[in-house]
Design goal:
This protein is α+β, with helices and mostly antiparallel strands. The protein has one domain. Helix content is 20%, strand content 30%. It is globular. InterPro entries: Sheath_initiator (IPR020288).
Length: 138
């Protein structure tokens, strides 16, 4: 027993066995799920993580009761702020990282590039997942 139970000694990286990630396949051009034979198509592995990440970046955090408070992003809060363009881009990049890193299959978000284009936020980044690297463009 430790005098400070909240402080734990550093140990070797703990690995948790995660089940195979499975999600609904997404049509990125039309922003709708893919259906076949009246049922949604299910993908697994890196494609499933990419599908989840794409959808998570589409949802404003805290707006819809159907989602947990950890799901979605806060980029919408930048609308109408008097921040400089550089600060808005830095904040948007931070919000993107926070949004994506809640997923247990994503260990790192790198090369985040954000661009405000006529009222639309464009995001591209590289996700380091348990299945390898995947590129995300939203």
């Amino acid at each position: 027993m430790s005098l400070f139970p909240i402080i734990q000694p550093e140990t070797a990286e703990q690995t948790v066995d995660l089940p195979l990630c499975r999600e609904v396949k997404w049509d990125y051009e039309n922003n709708i799920p893919v259906w076949r034979g009246g049922e949604p198509v299910i993908v697994s592995g890196a494609q499933a993580v990419l599908s989840w990440a794409y959808r998570a970046l589409q949802v404003p955090r805290y707006r819809f009761a159907v989602y947990t408070w950890g799901y979605g992003n806060e980029c919408e809060s930048l609308i109408g702020t008097a921040y400089t363009d550089e600060l808005k881009q830095a904040e948007a990049a931070r919000y993107v990282r926070e949004c994506l890193l809640v997923h247990p299959y994503i260990s790192e978000v790198s090369e985040v590039r954000v661009k405000f284009d006529e009222g639309t936020l464009r995001v591209s980044c590289v996700l380091e997942t348990v299945y390898g690297e995947v590129d995300l463009d939203v």
